[in-house]
Write a structure and sequence with these properties.
The complex is a heterodimer of chains A (about 500) and B (about 140). Chain A is mainly α. Helices cover about 75% and strands about 0% of the residues of chain A. Chain B has a domain of about 70 residues. In chain B, helix 2 runs antiparallel to helix 3. The chains are: A mainly alpha (about 500), B mainly alpha (about 140). At the A-B interface, helix 1 and helix 2 of A face helix 2 and helix 3 of B.
Chain lengths: ~500, ~140
């Protein structure tokens, strides 16, 4: 017979996935509107519906009980902790910015616009589910919801060859790595006999004492890493990143570079800390004995940032350049994961928030210049500072923030990341990261130099509409504001772990 | 624990052995003839190939196959619900289960409407005029390796 309390607990659990349900409703509504009004393809209608759906998805969060680390719901599939609670609005903001950017740049055709908004909402829903999951099956399901729909988003311009090529590369790479990750999951399930992360973590701590199981654990970790490093675009699974970022429509590139990447890092925190680390004291963790995954990750982090920065130097296409810069930033972010402390985790989350605004900002400028008659090549930016001062100053601010110069938000984020590894006494990694910051200075400043110090080679007039300016302002305010007054965010983040 | 994998290990060994066994047996049994034209055809067993394999497939096949797959899975997921529905009725939560299934089927139905509306259920889909210019078929080139 069906136990009555099972139904009751499931019904209660439904209120916790309110954001996802509202997003689903919004998706269905947009789908229906797109079907019912085929000749009235007003982009603004879809934009309003999508933004309303994303904004509405955040509303039920404040009606829910106080998050707690052990508050699970829907048969232990999800956990309601601070990381879940704060990630959901984060991804909603990512979605809203992407949709507004698609709206103002007009890079996606009207005939594909409703599908594009639907897919952005659906990927956002996948990311929201992913960060809350504590069950291997649910994690994989959400991971694939996010993954498969983002392949579609990359190829949304069906008649564009570059878009199609990028989507195909993304699919093949993604299928391979997520399959590898699933294999890792199956090994872990074979070891622990459960898909629940809590149950697995107890078994893992036990198994790591036995030499024959330790080998299995190491293989499982390496297979895990394939999926996670792919999503975060880190070495050695970064090859897809430049091609996909270049071929995808620019707003989608911005979305991929902050949304799924952030989800990947949250998954890092979700998987590695409960599974392969034990609480040493209140704020410091220790890798499960016999498994030195922090050292592996430290190496990956160092190689990722060096490779990203060195490859970015020679890029003339801004989207490719920013793609390599996003690889380098994945390397910086990994420093926080490596440090195995609460400080490290906080710094990762802090940096992700800051990175959201500055990176979307940089891509927004690229999209706006391209849609206003320029191109994505650096030649279009020569002497642009005189013709479009507002956009160029904004671009310069985003780039300075990406370098990590004070007084911009990127600086504060980087300070936290550096502090985390120095506190853990991994000095060599901090030195590598500092050297990398110097390398990155060169190619970011190349754009700034082209904009303000060089003579224009093209004489096109860049007209940026008011709506774009307002969107840029909305991205500038946090980039500047969090660089000067970051304590509120730091306080919120430090409450999480 | 290692013993649990003995089955798998035996399968791997057998699988590897079988490869050699089959090749050896066929080598022993097969008549040694050379220069028979049939040996150089695609299927070596007497089946004559009809035309070239490098033809244009109807791409529409995939859309229909995809739709079929979705509704096939729908059936597979709804069927277990139906089989326990009687128990749910007795437990007094029949309405809850009904709503659950209705929502699930409703979402898929909306998908069907969307597909229908896009004309993906027709075998021959008409390409809008503005897209047609991008659809110039290249002349057939002989494929060389």
């Amino acid at each position: 017979m069906i136990p009555e309390n099972f139904i009751q607990s499931n019904l209660q659990g439904i209120s916790f996935i309110g954001p996802e349900l509202i997003l689903t409703l919004a998706i269905l509504l947009i789908l229906l509107v797109g079907v019912l009004l085929p000749y009235w393809r007003h982009r603004i209608l879809f934009t309003i519906l999508a933004v309303a759906g994303l904004a509405g998805s955040v509303l039920p969060l404040w009606k829910l009980p106080q998050p707690a680390p052990d508050l699970t719901y829907l048969s232990n599939l999800f956990v309601w902790d601070w990381l879940t609670f704060l990630s959901k609005p984060f991804f909603a903001v990512v979605g809203v910015l992407t949709i507004l950017l698609t709206q103002v740049t007009g890079e996606i055709d009207n005939s594909e616009y409703s599908e594009c908004t639907i897919l952005v909402l659906a990927v956002t829903m996948g990311m929201m589910l992913l960060v809350a999951s504590t069950d291997l099956l649910m994690i994989y399901l959400a991971f694939e919801t996010m993954g498969i729909l983002s392949y579609l988003l990359v190829g949304i311009r069906a008649r564009d060859e570059r878009s199609g090529e990028a989507a195909l590369k993304y699919v093949l790479y993604g299928a391979f790595t997520s399959g590898t990750m699933l294999f890792g999951f199956s090994l872990l399930f074979g070891l622990a006999g459960s898909t629940d992360l809590l149950a697995i973590s107890q078994k893992v701590a036990f198994a790591s004492q036995h030499p024959q199981d330790r080998l299995l654990l190491i293989v499982a970790i390496l297979f895990f890493l394939a999926g996670l490093l792919f999503k975060t675009a880190s070495f050695p699974f970064h090859f897809w990143c430049p091609d996909v970022y270049e071929g995808a429509p620019t707003p989608i590139t911005a979305f991929l570079s902050v949304g799924p990447k952030a989800a990947g890092f949250v998954l890092f925190i979700r998987l590695f800390y409960p599974l392969f680390a034990t609480g040493h004291d209140a704020t410091i963790y220790e890798a499960v004995s016999g498994l030195d995954w922090p050292s592996i990750l430290a190496l990956v982090s160092a190689i990722t940032m060096t490779l990203g920065n060195l490859a970015a130097i020679h890029q003339n296409n801004l989207k490719r350049l920013l793609a390599y810069s996003s690889i380098a930033h994945a390397g910086y972010l990994l420093m926080g994961i490596v440090s195995l402390s609460d400080l490290g985790l906080r710094s990762v989350v802090f940096y992700l928030v800051v990175y959201l605004f500055m990176n979307v900002g940089a891509f927004a400028v690229v999209a706006m210049v391209a849609s206003a008659g320029g191109s994505e090549e650096i030649d279009s930016y020569r002497g642009l500072g005189a013709r479009a001062p507002y956009v160029c100053v904004a671009m310069a601010i985003f780039l300075f923030s990406l370098i990590g110069l004070p007084p911009f938000a990127g600086f504060v984020g980087k300070v936290y990341l550096f502090a985390a590894v120095i506190y853990k006494k991994i000095y060599w990694l901090a030195v590598v990261a500092a050297l990398n910051t110097v390398i990155s200075l060169y190619y970011y400043l190349r754009i700034v130099k082209a904009m303000f110090l060089e003579k224009p080679t093209e004489t096109i007039q860049i007209q940026v509409p008011l709506s774009s300016r307002v969107l840029l302002l909305a991205l500038l305010v946090p980039t500047l504001g969090l660089g000067i007054y970051w304590q509120p965010l730091a306080r919120v983040v430090s409450g999480m772990f | 624990m290692f013993f649990d994998f003995a089955n798998v290990f035996i399968f791997i060994i057998l699988g590897l052995l079988m490869t050699f066994v089959i090749i050896t047996v066929s080598r022993l049994l097969a008549p040694r003839v050379s220069d028979v034209p049939d040996k150089f055809t695609t299927y070596e067993c007497g089946e004559r190939p009809v035309g070239s394999a490098w033809i244009l497939f109807n791409f529409r096949f995939y859309a229909v196959a995809l739709a079929f797959l979705i509704f096939d899975i729908e059936l597979a997921l709804v069927f277990p619900c139906i089989s326990v529905y009687h128990k749910w009725l007795k437990a007094g939560s029949g309405l809850f289960a009904l709503i659950e299934i209705a929502v699930f089927v409703g979402i898929l139905f909306l998908g069907l409407i969307y597909m229908w509306n896009r004309g993906d259920l027709k075998w021959t889909k008409e390409v809008p005029e503005e897209m047609e210019e991008g659809l110039v078929l290249e002349e057939e080139k002989p494929i060389t390796f």
